[in-house]
Amino acid sequence: MDFISQHITSKDNSVIKNFRKLMTSKKERRLKRQFVLEGSRLVFDALKNNAPVTKILVTESALEKFCGELEKYRSREIIRISDELGNKISDTGNTQGVFAQCDFMEECGVLKTLKAHGRYAVLSGLQDPGNAGMIIRTADAMGLDGVIFSGSCDIYNPKVIRATMGSVFRIPVFSDIEEDDVFMKLSAAQIPSYAAVVNMEACDVKSVDFSNGGAIFIGNEGNGLSEKTVSKCTYSITIKMNGNIESLNAAMATGIIMWELTK
Amino acid sequence: MDFISQHITSKDNSVIKNFRKLMTSKKERRLKRQFVLEGSRLVFDALKNNAPVTKILVTESALEKFCGELEKYRSREIIRISDELGNKISDTGNTQGVFAQCDFMEECGVLKTLKAHGRYAVLSGLQDPGNAGMIIRTADAMGLDGVIFSGSCDIYNPKVIRATMGSVFRIPVFSDIEEDDVFMKLSAAQIPSYAAVVNMEACDVKSVDFSNGGAIFIGNEGNGLSEKTVSKCTYSITIKMNGNIESLNAAMATGIIMWELTK
After folding, report:
1. At what angle do helices A129-142 and B250-262 cross, to 10 degrees?
2. Are A13 and A94 in the same domain?
3. Among A259, A260, A262, which would you mutate to test the B interface (most chain B Cβ atoms within 10 Å of its Cβ)?
4. Does A131 touch chain B (CB under 8 A)?
5. Do B37 and B165 form a contact (C-beta atoms < 8 A)?
6. What's the CATH number where A237 sits?
7. Cα A234 vs. chain centroid, distance in angstroms?
8. What is the pLDDT of residues B185-233, one digit of tens each?
């Protein structure tokens, strides 16, 4: 275990204090430009995908279990913490004892050129971290070209990161992008924009021709997209079904539309 | 507030003790043939849909807020509890203070005749309550004829019930059904069965003709369907995508297949 740089048992240690702050405060994350990860799968997914992990924290029990795998990442700063501390800093009920601290992903904060006729999901006012994470995960499954956050929840919120199940390290995600910037880049890449609305007069998603690609705009869970955003989109689309559309969760609705977009 | 039958402030009161047992123990639920609900939306959805609610528990604070609505259900047993007790019996972090105790839904435990050429989801070994609830919710949205639980998690688990967002009271659900019984009733109703598998040689869900209806069999989150179940199904189908199918969550995959089944 010569790859362990230090052993922390006190909750007053500055590493632990900083970790907790990054976990709970968006302001702190923005200030330090760092975020945290919890869970063995998530941490190893980040490492495998070359995410800018700066520190790995691992409990004594977890160290026994993941020793072999951790050794591959010995060039990183790996810190051992007591099991008790692991339970203290955990954001989940039942921690696996593997945590990491990671720099913001550089390419995530700026919307550079989009892929010509690419396929994107744009979250505009979406607030629930579980939904946001599930959408990133599904976009990865369906092979979208990226997910853009605009006026939505914090992509670096631990609940969002956890709900992506590692997909956040596998597909391009863009955070805190101004809406005008989104429309400008879409236009430059010749990507039509589609506002997802609950309005039976909008175009049925089943009959949309997505052969030129498309950016799907998804709004807030309770209120949907703002009128202003809808009016800026090229088209309005909706999901027509026999059932009760009010029962469709935002992430599920987005999944259905992404399915039609990519098939 | 003459519709309040009693006021409970002690956690040792038998009503509270029974409520807690029903919340945490599947065995207790099976014994009493009752389950519990938490949350104003869920409780009022149950009442509106004539679910067999036997007791409504409401905290002092919640009573002020929901007094008018509760009065409509004055024929039921409505019990006031202290706010402190409300926090104690809550299964969520942030309770709304409205709870109910409900008899098992009579039609839920027996698989009677299925609708000829109907559309059903069959959960076979699915374990995560959040996924199970989300599938019931999405089946309601898409207008399926029912959801059948076979060898899966307990439909009356508070986490399942909560994740359905009230849909469990709106569409037919069947709990603890033997697999042989499922196949028998499907056959009688001339409904073809489709095993959802991750196998690129299986039939692409996009090209399946569901005009004779269909029952979609969904397996365990980690291991999928058992070979035995797959072999009993008429067809095997899969979701073909450009992306990483391993990233597709079980509830989302089921949602996509139900979408194809009903469109």
Report:
1. 70
2. yes
3. A259
4. no
5. no
6. 3.40.1280.10
7. 26
8. 999 999 999 999 999 899 999 999 999 999 999 999 999 999 999 999 9
